[in-house]
């Protein structure tokens, strides 16, 4: 069930061309002795329709990798290849406060080139898909954190991206809201079959959601191990199967973190 | 599918619990809560003024009482002299302010966008704001002689830096997360400017506009006192005449008008806009 690897983790669906390919990518911030190696020759592949979670302790460059994939930043060296478009969700909803909930979703459509007349029905159906129908006219500040994050999800879906990059999107939510959002995300992913690369430091969350969990080393970030998750869906976070695998991954992660204590 | 329906219901339930409850206060109550301290302060100010007049500290021609002042104001409103002067002053105010906004916006957006320009004149713009506008008048009079242009020149110099600064500060203080969100959505260059940078800097820009108005209004009053143009009746010119005739009721009545215009524009125009933006952005505590 687990295949801890040190180098070149094989993609889950062998033979299917990867939708997302990271090859020996490094990212260095700053210069000279003060330079920080956020990512060091990291390589990974994600196949179309796959749900991959990246877990790692602080400083493993998880967010940096997503920023590189979303073209918010460029790598110091190495190759990145993404087939199709990417959307990125942040830990905070990052909604525009000057727009309504519907306006935020609509802007994503507009910037994608969807003509004005077609935006309104699309906004309505996108909001419905995250169970926020009827709230299009509200302001972001009027919603709870979980609802705002669902608006952000609807906005990301509005981009109609092939790859959804998620940077600890549920990290600041309470456990109950997070469970519901896991179910929502799983449902949307099952229905729409996009590819997800999901960053988290919560190992259970990773096992709850992913087809495959990649463990990253810290400073510099590299893939230390890959775990295939073969627990049938829909899953629940409190089942023994999820706990067992999460325990195993946590052990791997602890070994990684301990390594730094000795250094 | 039963599980999915459960999920939808659970989501709806949690949403209902999490929607912040907004206490509603009726409109008359809210208006009264906002109005009574102002009315009380006004009454106390008038009473103090009356007490000083009664004390006989200064003769009538130097310090008229509230009753004489408001009688004078009423008469001058009825005979039209006040409105003629006010009309002239407001025309100048709008023209000068409009030009200041234009100059301020062009200057501000250039400085905010171009790094070299920022290094070159960024601190100069802030410095210009500290320059008392009246100090520009001798130069303005040399350049333009006593004319409308001289007044406009000083108004623009007084107001444009504040407006430009508001715009620059606004673009500087945009949360990086919002910029990133905009870029992730595919907004680059001009689209990013239009859909993210401009709306995000609106509150600060509005503050600049408000401050710019205060500077423009002050410069205008100084200008009208110094630059008297024949047969152009304005509020500043009225102040000057009232002084020449030692008519303190007329003088004070004109001052009341100047004060009221300043407060009205500040609170009715800019105050309303500011509150509207802050309410939309959720920057007002609904319980307060």
Account of the 3D structure:
The complex is a heterodimer of chains A (263) and B (288). Chain A has helices at residues 62-69, 101-111, 116-129, 145-158, 175-192, 203-209, 240-262, and strands at 2-3, 18-29, 36-47, 51-55, 77-82, 86-89, 163-167, 195-200, 212-216, 223-228. By secondary structure, chain A is α/β, with parallel strands linked by helices. Chain A is globular and about 55 Å long. Residues 1-13 of chain A have low confidence and may be disordered. Chain B starts with a helix and ends in a 7-residue tail after the last helix. Chain B has helices spanning 2-18, 27-54, 66-78, 81-113, 115-130, 137-144, 148-172, 176-184, 189-200, 202-226, 235-244, 248-281. Chain B has one domain (60-281): MetI-like (MetI-like fold, Orthogonal Bundle). Chain B contains 12 helices and no strands. The chains are: A alpha/beta (263), B mainly alpha (288). The interface between A and B is medium-sized, with 36 and 32 residues.
Kindly report the average pLDDT value of chain A: 88
Element order, helices and strands of chain B? HHHHHHHHHHHH
Share of residues in helices of chain A: 25-40%
What's the helix-strand series of chain A?
Answer: EEEEHEEHHHEHEHEEH
Supply Rg of chain A: 19 Å
The CATH architecture term of chain B is Orthogonal Bundle
Number of separate helices of chain A: 7
Q: Give the helix level of chain B as a range of percent.
A: over 70%
Strand content of chain B: under 5%
**Distance N to C terminus of chain B:** 45 Å
CATH topology of the largest domain in chain A: Rossmann fold
Which architecture of the largest domain in chain A would the CATH scheme give at its second level? 3-Layer(aba) Sandwich
Outline type of chain A: globular
Determine the mean pLDDT of chain B: 90
The CATH topology of chain B: MetI-like fold
Binned strand content of chain A: 15-25%
């Amino acid at each position: 069930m687990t295949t801890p690897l040190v180098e070149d983790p094989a993609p889950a669906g062998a033979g299917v061309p990867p939708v997302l390919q990271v090859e020996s990518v490094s990212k260095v911030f700053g210069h000279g002795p003060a330079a920080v190696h956020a990512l060091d020759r990291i390589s990974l592949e994600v196949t179309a329709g796959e749900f991959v979670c990246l877990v790692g302790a602080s400083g493993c460059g998880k967010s940096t990798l997503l920023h590189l994939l979303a073209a918010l930043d460029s790598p110091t060296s190495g190759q990145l290849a993404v087939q199709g478009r990417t959307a990125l969700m942040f830990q905070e909803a990052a909604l525009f406060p000057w727009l309504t909930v519907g306006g935020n979703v609509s802007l994503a459509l507009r910037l994608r080139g969807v003509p004005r007349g077609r935006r309104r029905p699309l906004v309505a159906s996108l909001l419905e898909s995250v169970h926020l129908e009827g709230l299009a006219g509200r302001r972001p500040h009027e919603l709870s954190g979980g609802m705002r994050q669902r608006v952000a999800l609807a906005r990301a879906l509005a981009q109609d991206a092939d790859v959804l990059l998620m940077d600890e999107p549920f990290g600041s939510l309470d456990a109950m809201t997070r469970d519901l959002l896991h179910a929502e995300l799983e449902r949307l992913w099952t229905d729409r079959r996009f590819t997800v690369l999901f960053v988290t430091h919560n190992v259970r969350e990773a096992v709850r959601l992913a087809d495959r969990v990649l463990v990253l080393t810290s400073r510099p970030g590299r893939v230390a191990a890959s775990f295939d998750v073969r627990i049938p869906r829909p899953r629940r976070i409190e089942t023994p199967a999820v706990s067992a695998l999460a325990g195993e991954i946590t052990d791997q992660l602890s070994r990684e973190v301990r390594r730094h204590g000795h250094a | 599918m039963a599980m999915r329906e459960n999920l939808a219901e659970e989501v709806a339930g949690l949403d209902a619990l999490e929607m912040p409850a907004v206490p509603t206060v009726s409109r008359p109550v809210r208006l009264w809560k906002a109005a009574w301290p102002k009315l009380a302060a006004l009454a106390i100010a008038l009473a103090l003024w009356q007490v000083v007049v009664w004390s006989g500290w200064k003769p009538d021609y130097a310090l008229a009482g509230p009753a004489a002042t408001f009688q004078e104001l009423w008469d001058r409103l009825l005979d039209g002299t006040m409105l003629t002067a006010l009309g002239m002053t407001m025309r100048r105010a709008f023209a000068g302010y409009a030009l200041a906004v234009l100059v301020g916006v062009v200057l501000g957006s250039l400085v905010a966008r171009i790094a070299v320009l920022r290094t070159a004149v960024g601190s100069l713009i802030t410095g210009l704001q500290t320059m008392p506008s009246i100090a520009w008048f001798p130069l303005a009079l040399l350049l333009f002689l006593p004319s409308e242009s001289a007044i406009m020149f000083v108004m623009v110099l007084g107001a444009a830096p504040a407006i430009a600064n508001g715009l620059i500060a606004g673009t500087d203080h945009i949360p990086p997360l919002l910029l990133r969100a905009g870029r992730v959505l595919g907004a680059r260059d001009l689209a990013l400017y239009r859909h993210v940078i401009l709306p995000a800097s609106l509150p600060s820009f509005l503050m600049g506009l408000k401050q710019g108005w205060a500077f423009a209004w002050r410069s205008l009053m100084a200008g009208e006192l110094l630059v008297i143009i024949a047969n152009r009746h304005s509020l500043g010119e009225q102040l000057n005449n009232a002084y020449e005739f030692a008519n303190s009721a007329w003088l004070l009545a004109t001052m009341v008008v100047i004060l009221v215009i300043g407060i009205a524009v500040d609170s009715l125009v800019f105050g309303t806009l500011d509150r509207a933006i802050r309410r939309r952005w959720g920057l007002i505590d609904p319980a307060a």
